[in-house]
Structure formats: structure tokens, C-alpha cells
Amino acid sequence: MTADLSPLDTRLTERALDVAIRLFARDGTRDVRMSDIAHEADVDPVDLRRAFPTKLDLIHAIIVRSTRQLLERQMTVSDEEKAPVERLSLFIRTHIEFSSEHRTEEELRRSVLPTLRAINPSRHREISDLLRGYREHVRGLIAAGRDAGVLAPSRPAVAAASVLETLDGILNWYDPSGGLSVQELGNVYADMIIHHLLGAPPE
Questions:
Q1: Does one domain contain both 114 and 181?
Q2: Which part of the chain is the HTH tetR-type domain (predicted)?
Q3: H-helix segments, the chain
Q4: 20 to 30 A Cα–Cα from 123, which one of 59, 62, 96, 132?
């Protein structure tokens, strides 16, 4: 369990999390030791172990922070004054941009959630509750589009799950060095999801 931290310790912990993400992206989680993270972050290994007794504790903190950041970014860009299709398009593009910027954290979440479900249900619930709130936000966007007559899903909750599954699948194949920019990727997926998956009429 993560220890209570003073403001100074919190700043050091944030730095340690950032360093851990960079090392995990470069070397993989298995080959990175806690001592490596402490050294690169210039924090006392004992202090790091006090905050995160195991590597899984640290990874859990990374996942929670990243998931909250995703929710916060979506809430920041969401504007109820915009038309439903425009709001959904912005949601899709923001999700793709965030996932590209935080690819390591997203991959950690996908790989670690099953482990947490098995060995630490309370931590699994913590992350699942955040993701449930995110899915509910998508459902609300889709329902607003259906109520406005511009989207055609029969069940917004099921459609929301399909939208997120489609977006999460991007990590399986997208290579930013492959010639398709994140902006272009957002254009493709916004069109596919809004017009083909959710049935919006062509513009």
C-alpha cells in the first residue's frame, strides 16, 4: 500500500513515476529494477520503497494517474454547447491523442488489470470505477446524438463499449513512424465511428 506522502515527497514521487514510464518504454517492465528508477529519478531508494514497496505498487500508481489524466482531459475539452456529432468527434480525437502521448501507460493498464483482478480486487475496482465513469461519459455523448436524431444506436451503453473497444484496438497496430500522423488517425477513426459504427448520415 502506498504510504502517505508530504508535498515534497509527492513531487519526488511524480518524478519517479515519470522516470519509470520512460524506462519501461525503453527496456520493458521486467528488465527495470526499482533501484534503476531510484537512480534515474535521483531519489533515495529507501524513500522509493517506502512509497512503493513493490514494482506492482508503482505500476498501479502510474495507471491510476494516467486514467485520471485521461478523464480530466476529456472533461476539459467537453463542451455541452457544441453539436452532438462535434462533441463525439472531439472525444475520439482527444482519446487518440492521449493514447499516443501515453502509450506506455495505456499498455500497462491493459496488461496489469487482469493481474490486479486476481491478486488485489480493491485496486482493480479503483481503476475499473474510473473506466466505468469514462464509459458513462461516452454513453452520454452517444445518447445525446441519438436524442438529437443524428446518431442511430439502439442501445447507447452497448455502443459506448464498442466505441472504446475500437479505440483501444489502435494500440495493437498503430506505429507513429509508419507515415500516418495522429491527426490523420483521428480523422479516420472519427469518420469510421461516427458514420459507420453509430450511423450518422454523411455530411
A1: yes
A2: 10-70
A3: 7-27, 34-41, 45-51, 55-77, 84-101, 103-119, 121-147, 156-168, 182-191
A4: 96
Q: Is residue 85 a contact partner of residue 144, using CB atoms and an 8 Å limit?
A: no
This model's pTM is above 0.85 = yes
The single-letter code of the amino acid at 122 is: S
Burial of 128 (0-12, 13-18, 19+ CB in 10 A): middle
> Do 12 and 71 reside in the same domain of the chain?
no
Cell match 502521448: residue?
Answer: 101
Sign of CA dihedral 32, 35, 39, 41: positive
CA distance 144 to 153: 11
Which residues, 6 or more positions from 135, have their beta carbon under 8 angstroms from its beta carbon?
Answer: 157, 160, 161, 164
Q: Is residue 203 part of a domain?
A: no
**Structure confidence at residue 154 as a pLDDT band (50, 70, 90):** confident
pLDDT at residue 202 in the model: 80
Residue 114, judged by CB atoms within 10 A of its CB (0-12, 13-18, 19+), counts as exposed
**169 part of a folded domain:** yes
Query: Are 47 and 12 spatial neighbours (Cβ–Cβ below 8 Å)?
Result: yes
Q: Could you list the residue range(s) of the whole structural domain that residue 136 is in?
A: 62-197
Q: How many separate domains does the chain show?
A: 2
Residues 6+ apart with CB under 8 A from 25: 103, 104
